[in-house]
Design goal:
With 343 residues, the protein is an alpha+beta fold. It has three domains: 75 residues, Orthogonal Bundle (Arc Repressor Mutant, subunit A); 154 residues, Beta-Lactamase; 86 residues, Enolase-like, domain 1 (2-Layer Sandwich), CATH 3.30.390. It is built from 14 helices and eleven strands. The strands form three sheets. Strands 3, 4, 8, 9, 10 and 11 form a six-stranded antiparallel sheet that branches. The protein is elongated and about 90 Å long.
């Protein structure tokens, strides 16, 4: 149902003003709307509708002789009611999917790739947080002989984290002896969290117990971590937009991306509320984003491991395009987390 505050004609004019301003970065005149689009009304009628939209706070104008530009309220109305659905082309989806398929064995590569894909395809600055699980669960471990009495432990957790640690032994152990031990412990501990793994320690022989102590220490430290790795990309995309580089938005985006505490606050908010969120000009919650828009969503499996990803850009961002990119990359990342957890 249409918003009772705006007639269908007002909605049509607002949609076109927002789209034209996003495209040109310039104030939009009634003449440009009436001549560029077949609305079936005169320039004077369009001008009256634009004046009405300005009175209601959806449009403003930089100076007396200029055309109008959208306000934050105008952008909010646009993204919620006028933008419509936007999809990446099949070719773009295949290209992105192929890139992730090539990197799907390394969590760090997924994070870096997702940040790069978001930045490139949305032409903005991106941020991605590594998935954080409620409790670490073991997926696989390897024991590799380095020297007679030195062994490398490689621990792979279900969310994709890989940890390595050197073990010093009291007596030499060969690789032929290590391989079956690693297989046995992987079988015994696969899918276990810290508590479940600890419950098996009473049945372990001395060397297996030494391995268990190291694994338990690693998992306990990971369980108590309060933040995730943050991956960023695409700041040059923002700086290369001339009107952005000359405004406060570029500096705000830079400060937002570099401020771990601020990023964690945004991520915490989206993780609590769920779904895709579009933040326009800070919306009274974040003064640091007064000149910036953010499209942010979470990915992963709710009861297993989740992270967040999104794009930051000037308020004059291509919202439909950015939303479609963020949603598609989030879907791919969720699929990868599902694969990790074997669901």
């Amino acid at each position: 149902m249409s918003d009772p505050e705006l007639t269908q004609r007002c909605q049509a004019v607002l949609r076109l003003v927002v789209r034209e301003h996003i495209r040109t970065a310039a104030p939009v005149s009634s003449k440009a709307i009436s001549e560029g689009y077949n609305l079936g009304v005169s320039s004077a009628t369009v001008r009256n509708e634009m004046a009405a939209l300005e009175e209601r706070g959806y449009l403003t104008h930089p100076h007396t002789s200029a055309g109008r530009i959208p306000t934050e309220r105008g952008y909010r109305y646009f993204v919620e009611k006028l933008m419509g659905e936007s999809q990446l082309s099949p070719t773009e989806r295949r290209t992105i999917s192929h890139q992730f398929h090539q990197a799907r064995l390394e969590l760090d590569q997924w994070m870096r790739l997702s940040a790069a894909v978001l930045a490139h395809n949305a032409q903005g600055a991106s941020l991605v947080t590594a998935p954080k699980s409620l409790k670490c669960r073991l997926k696989h471990l390897e024991l590799i002989s380095i020297r007679d009495e030195v062994v490398l432990l490689i621990l792979v957790l279900q969310e994709g984290t890989v940890k390595q640690q050197i073990l010093s032994l009291d007596a030499p152990v060969t690789q032929d002896e290590l391989a079956p031990i690693a297989r046995h412990l992987t079988h015994l501990w696969s899918g276990c969290d810290h508590t479940e793994l600890s419950a098996t320690c009473g049945s372990l022989v001395s060397f297996e117990g030494q391995v268990a102590d190291v694994v338990l220490d690693i998992m306990q430290r990971l369980d108590t971590r309060t933040s995730s790795e943050i991956y960023r990309d695409g700041l040059l995309n923002v700086l290369n937009q001339s009107e952005t580089a000359q405004s406060d938005s570029a500096q705000q985006i830079l400060r937002a991306l570099e401020g771990r505490q601020f990023v964690e606050g945004m991520v915490s908010d989206v993780m609590q509320h769920g779904g895709l969120q579009i933040i326009i000009g800070g919306e009274g919650r974040w003064e640091e984003l007064s000149e910036v828009s953010v499209v942010l969503t979470r990915y992963g499996i709710d009861d297993k491991a989740t992270g967040a990803l999104g794009v930051l850009g000037p308020i004059r961002m291509q919202y439909g395009r950015v939303v479609s990119v963020v949603r598609y990359v989030s879907q791919l990342m969720s699929d990868l987390i599902t694969d990790l957890y074997g669901q």
